Amino acid sequence: MSEPLIAALLYADGVYPDRVIARAIAPLRERGVAMAGAIQLKPAGQPGRHPCDLLLEDLASGEVTAIVEHRGKEARGCRLDVGVLTDVAEAVSASIHADGPRLLIVNKFGKIEADGGGMRGAIAEAVDLGIPVLVGVPVRNLDRWRVFAGPLAVELAVDDAAVARWLSEHGLAVEPVAVTGAVAGNPWTM
After folding, report:
1. CA atoms within 13 A of residue 23's CA, in its CB half-sphere
2. I need a labelling partner for 81 at 20 to 30 A (CA). Which of 110, 114, 119, 131 fits?
3. Which pTM was predicted?
């Protein structure tokens, strides 16, 4: 039996797998491997930015989009802009069909995905097309993730070697690299 087409990186709330994902895909980016999906970036060194100011980079286009409503620097709590996330998800879905990616990256199977929206459709489309999917799954959404993905997914620890091994099993052999500062020419620091 072949390896599951989806790898879920399980993480505790607030301990995102962004750096592991960035290290895993950096060599793929350097080799020009076509990828779809989005990775989460945090603005760094930007005066006046709120800690909730999160960004998504569309891996196919390189476009960086703010995904949290701007409620002022004194606001408490973050609020995802669902409309913007929907737009990003639609762009990712279009790139799956147009750009022939060899890998789909979804930084987070969050509440929106657990409820049936967000990047959930892109994950299903990629699987239908035989494209491997690497997705971050917070443990709070694990039960709903398992219902959604079923036997198509393997669960991995947030570990460079585990991700590299899984990518290699899908013809995407990589050597994890250190990611510091801006990622692939992006002005935002991971």
Report:
1. 17
2. 131
3. 0.83
